[in-house]
Amino acid sequence: MVRGSASLSAQIGRLATPQAELLGGPFEKKVQDFFREVSRLLPWTIKNYKLDEIVTLGELRRNVSLLFRQHANVTDPKVVDILIYKGREELESVALQHKQRHHLIGQFIVAPQKLREQMARKRPISEFLENFYTNRLP
Amino acid sequence: MVLRRLSDAAQSLRAARLAPVSSTVFAERPLHTSSSASQQPAAAPSNDIEVTVNGNSVSIPKGSTVMAACSAAGIDIPRFCYHQRLSIAGNCRMCLVEVERSPKPVASCAMPAAPGMNIKTDTPLVKKAREGVMEFLLINHPLDCPICDQGGECDLQDQSMHFGSDRGRFTELKRSVHDKNLGPLVKTVMTRCIHCTRCVRFATEVAGVQDLGMTGRGNASEIGTYVEKMMSSELSGNVIDLCPVGALTSKPYAFTARNWELRSTETVDVSDALGSNIRVDARGHEVMRIVPVQNDAVNEEWISDKARFQYDGLKRQRLNVPLVLGKEGLESAQWEEAIKATAEALGKVKGNEISFIAGKLADAETLIAAKDLANRLGCGNLKVESGFPDLDADVRSNYLANTTISGVELADVILLIGTNPRTEAPVFNARLRKVFMEGAHLASIGEEYDLTYPTEHLGEGAEALTKVLKGAPILKRLQEAKYPAIIVGPGLLNRLDRAAVLQQVHELVEKANVVRDDWNGYNVLHDSASRVAALDLGFLPSARASSAPAPKVVYLLGSDDYSEEDVPKDAFVIYQGHHGDRGAERADIILPGSAYTEKSATFVNFEGRPQRTKAAVPRVGDAREDWTIIRALSEILGKPLPYDSKKELRQRLADVAPHFSATDTVQLPMWLNGEYFKAFKDRSGKVAAQSEPFRSSVANFFQTDVISRTSINMAKAVQARAVMPHEGSSLHQP
């Protein structure tokens, strides 16, 4: 069992590790490739964390791409590299099960949903209103 | 285990915390006390006597009982029949103590303490006596604690654990007694009765109905109603608290919970304008029962049947999600959509085409938020439902009970004008009865009601008032009285000819010298919990409101008793409240709010005492606290209110009306020498006083607001009243 799971994580690790030739080149390509990497892991993530009760593959991919798009205005290649690095850290902790189900739900299902609600609003709402809508006022 | 009502000291401590006013505001006035011994004020030193209790010497006022001496020495005496607000019966014998040079143990509740008395409470004789009394009481008491609703909070259970013998010697059959039917509210299991007669004394002395009594002698004696009938009092539920055993228990509460499962929250009742202090006992998110909390300045330790039993209305017909009128009627919506739709409706029309109507249960926080929002929208059409929205609120003494609720006990002549306190505020009526029992003279103008004490009936309408002004004997009585009082009912303020009648009343106030240097006897009684706060905060139509066109958008703040002309047929109606009733049925948008047991909110009672409720149970479904809805709405409308938290909102309340800064106290209003009332003369010209009799505003005591109308308990009580054999018009004699 232990050996089996070790080989599985090794597999996943390989899946999530970038190929050496991709480390150079234009950053648009790097980002695209990293997004593909993430997308490749999504079916396994849904199955492994039993997220199919809450979300479909398409929805989850849209959510992830929304998180990518949050940084659409970043043009500095160094910053992009850092962001990809941080993203890969996240990816690894998902793949190695350092995260639990509720972490994923909060990060990749609830947070993007809130982002969308916010983007749908014409102007940002106050903290009070935010708390009011989410029933968090005492 | 803590013995209920055993510690007078603890009770008075609690009373002092709840009612700091009695010690501050009335410091210079002589405090009126009832005849019971333990309540006697600290008298002058010359009136004190010295007695010894268990070797310690204590000094107590002359005329105190032995029991009072023991409690002064910090010793609790077990008791069943003794109760500090009832007369002394001395029939349970549980309070036996030893007194030196007395041939046998004495009943300490009934024995006056004499100077130099040597009282002992911890001797073998006392222990034996208590054990013996317990044994006698338990002879005929069934061993059904496991199925008894009093189990766990039973005086008999507790005291038999403390003082009883460890074994029984009784082998014969126990006696059994038929249960009595006292109506839909009080359940009886008369076999459990130990004949302390607290209920009988409460009914005759406090409630003022001669319904309960004892029949038979010796082993055959029974507590009952002589003939089968329900208790005809609005205070009948209090016998449940008084009963030290499980003979009288609550019918709606029967077999639903055990007291150790309940989570208690001390809060304030909103079923009438008195603001009785209550304790809400909840299990999970369900209110299981409501019982009174002692507050000598407000409700003593009684509450009305409506306050006690209407809680089942909180479980039915609740609004739990926002609803917006769509193609297929009202459809459930997210809060964001509902608030947006509301803002759209309010934004489309001009300020003076909007109208706000507050209901009977609106709290002060919601009222001030709504008023601030309305003013920001340029709207001055603020109303309180069912009557006198335009009563002047410039001077507080004009609409408050100026004697205060406990202060009315000082009064020696009282004139009731157009009021039936028995339905409008039953607990206050019990206090008026107490005043009568102390020897005050009461007179009334208006329809004649059975108030449980006799009043001199002077006539039905304005002509009787004129007669009094011209010099009826009552005028002289009022003038000669030391503390005269006039009580004006809400029914009178509802009349079209209010200005004319009030002008006469004020003439009488002046003529009879009801307001003196140290005494203001002018009282106004209200019938709904929100009214005084609304007046305090100026939730009234603005000066230009009368010229406004018919409203196109009406915002109902829990208003279900609005009049039809205030809500035109083509108006867009927004209902914010907690029950689906008349208002919600008419509404285009429904915003679910919270009931008084679910929020911390401020209410002001009719003596002007701001009191705060506490949340005892969580809100229902997706409902929100009322003021937050208005605050959220204001932001979407682009006119955000400047408070985000309840603390800031309460600061705003205190800015508008300073007395809100000190809850649980009464700030006595200024009278302005009656100058203010001279203005009534100019206004009274518009509508002359009519001959129609003065009526109470509350015809059906049990169903006055949306919670009590939804309550099945209240509906059953109304039904039981309807089939109750009609009593003659004879007034009960004390």
From TrEMBL, chain A:
Membrane-related topology note: Peripheral membrane protein
UniProt protein name: G495 protein
Organism: Coccomyxa viridis
Similarity annotation: Belongs to the complex I LYR family.
InterPro entries hit by this protein: Complex1_LYR_NDUFA6_LYRM6, NADH_Ub_cplx-1_asu_su-6
Protein keywords: Electron transport, Membrane, Mitochondrion, Mitochondrion inner membrane, Respiratory chain, Transport
Compartments where found: Mitochondrion inner membrane
CDD domains (UniProt xref): Complex1_LYR_NDUFA6_LYRM6
Domain of life: Eukaryota
From TrEMBL, chain B:
Keyword tags: 4Fe-4S, Iron, Iron-sulfur, Metal-binding, NAD, Translocase
Cofactor(s) demanded: [4Fe-4S] cluster; [2Fe-2S] cluster
Domain of life: Eukaryota
SMART domains xrefs: NADH-G_4Fe-4S_3
Domain 4Fe-4S Mo/W bis-MGD-type: 262-318
Domain 2Fe-2S ferredoxin-type: residue ranges: 47-125
Domain 4Fe-4S His(Cys)3-ligated-type: 125-164
Keyword Zinc: no
Entry similarity comment: Belongs to the complex I 75 kDa subunit family.
Matching NCBIfam families: NuoG
Name used for this protein in its record: G12571 protein
Organism: Coccomyxa viridis
Record lineage: Eukaryota, Viridiplantae, Chlorophyta, core chlorophytes, Trebouxiophyceae
Gene: g12571
